[in-house]
Amino acid sequence: MRNICMTVSYDGTAYHGFQTQPSNNTIQDILERAIRSLTGETIKITSSGRTDAGVHARCQVINFITSSPIPLVRWCLALNTLLPADIIVSNARQVDDNFHSRRSADCKTYRYTIRCGKHPDLFRRNQEYFHPTPLNTEAMQSSLPCLVGEHDFTSFCSIRSTKKSNVRTIYAVSLECEPMDPILQSYGIHIHVTGNGFLYNMVRIIVGTLIQIGEGKRSADAMSEILAIRDRALAGPTAMPHGLMLWEVLYDNDEISS
Amino acid sequence: MRNICMTVSYDGTAYHGFQTQPSNNTIQDILERAIRSLTGETIKITSSGRTDAGVHARCQVINFITSSPIPLVRWCLALNTLLPADIIVSNARQVDDNFHSRRSADCKTYRYTIRCGKHPDLFRRNQEYFHPTPLNTEAMQSSLPCLVGEHDFTSFCSIRSTKKSNVRTIYAVSLECEPMDPILQSYGIHIHVTGNGFLYNMVRIIVGTLIQIGEGKRSADAMSEILAIRDRALAGPTAMPHGLMLWEVLYDNDEISS
User: Fold this and answer.
1) Which end of chain B is more exposed for a tag (fewer CB within 10 A), N or C?
2) A85: phi > 0 → left, psi -120 to 50 → alpha, else beta; which?
């Protein structure tokens, strides 16, 4: 038996999220079916964390236990042949028996992209949330540092969450603007959030609040006030899923999963 | 009556090319239907040139004659509301009565993108031709300068072309490599070709030949030999359409259409 770990990239547009559902139209369902076709085994894969319907992954990490004798170097090519064009596996490696994609993860980074301006970029329309009116990116930027550190993120957690503790640590948050595209008269705003774990909808609620700050509906100070008050009802709306991408997952011992 | 000119971007994946066809599923058909819905007029639009099925445009230019009183500033917003998400119009402006998107054009630039390496970029899978084995980009680069200038491009023209003369002028050709993506272990190769006009499939046949040079199936000198011999049968295959994008159209008097 081997514990095999892989990097998975997916365009989440066509799927009902990562985790298995009765619809069978999730990334996990598709991956498990492909592994079954390849090996004849019915296995359960573990991921670094679920992503919601419409959310993408540049670099999700999965692992699973297999008794298949297929050599490591063959796994990716063989699985990619069985997978649809919007899911790609790469970098198969054997890991310790006790490696667990989620529990062993040191930190995860999500990226959220807003396109702000006159026209969306149609080639990235499924990966960018389009905002047609100007945003105050300076106010947005200045609202972010308060999120760094260990905090109770109840205000930025879906009320449907079933987690016992809402305390998480954010290591870094950044906001970066692309140059204005002269044809589209719009530019991309990338928000990267790195933490030791994320609550249900946490990045999307932070971004929904951030957009309200950018719109001038709230002051830049609102972020820290909302954080302190621990009440989901006071934060902004949950931002649309398609702007979100699981960007990177890092593991202990500086082992970079990607 | 006004002659109105617009920039059009489209993702050609879902369409049967630019030019009207009985299928009605072309960019021109969709644009003319949207204009009819908006104005009640049945108009014919002119473009800077047709693009084949699957080919994209960052910046196509169209014009049409209309008697609609809709103010210029309203056209784009109104049309974009009626257009699907994979077609966007921008930058509506009134032009001289004798302006013609194709005949008035000074030069056009096409970009072809090859992704070379282990894995495709799934977020650009419809805009990049994926080549899984290495390409000799130095040989490819050194084969390009011979194309610049006024030449008879019969070798790089589909035999289905009905043009009288195959003489065209190429002003510039360049090949540019993106840095290697560490996760995908692949990189994008962008080929830009600027000319005063293009024959049917011309860029795609040049790129098909270029790929054979990159694969080592032909020497870098082959490009000039094929050009000189004026025989389509001696050039490489027509490269897949989805890697091609109409990049820019420039007009006389330094009037940049985009």
Assistant:
1) N
2) alpha
Give residue A41's domain range.
2-95
Q: Which domain CATH number covers A212? A: 3.30.70.660
Reported ipTM: the value is: 0.90
Q: Categorize the per-residue pLDDT at B163 as very low, low, confident or very high, splitting at 50, 70 and 90.
A: confident
Judgement on whether residues A114 and A177 belong to the same structural domain of the protein: yes
pLDDT range class, residue B253, cuts 50, 70, 90: low
The CA-atom distances, in angstroms, between A109 and each of A63, A81, A193, A216, B184 are: 19, 29, 5, 27, 18
- Whether B180 has its CB under 8 Å from any CB of chain A: the answer is no
- Considering the domain architecture, whether residues A128 and A73 belong to the same structural domain is answered as no
Active site residues of A: 52
Q: B185 and A7: CB-CB below 8 Å?
A: no
Residue A253 is predicted with a pLDDT of 61
Annotated ligand binding at A110? The verdict is: yes
Whether residue A238 sits in one domain with residue A163: yes
How many Å lie between the alpha carbon of A167 and the closest alpha carbon of chain B?
A: 31
Q: Alpha-carbon torsion B237, B243, A246, A84, what sign?
A: negative
Query: Could you say which of A125, A183, A258 has the minimum Cβ distance to residue B58?
Result: A183
Taking the alpha carbons at both ends of chain B, their separation in whole angstroms is 23
Q: At what angle do helices B27-39 and B72-82 cross, to 10 degrees?
A: 120
Domain boundary, last residue among A59, A74, A95: A95
* Complete DSSP assignment for B70-121: --HHHHHHHHHHHS-TTEEEEEEEEE-TT--TTTTEEEEEEEEEEEEESS--
CB-CB contact of B156 with B227 (8 Å): yes
Asked, for residue B257, whether it belongs to a domain, the answer is no
Q: What is the 3-state secondary structure (H, E, C) of B151-181?
A: EECHHHCCCCCCCCCCEEEEEEEEEEECCCE
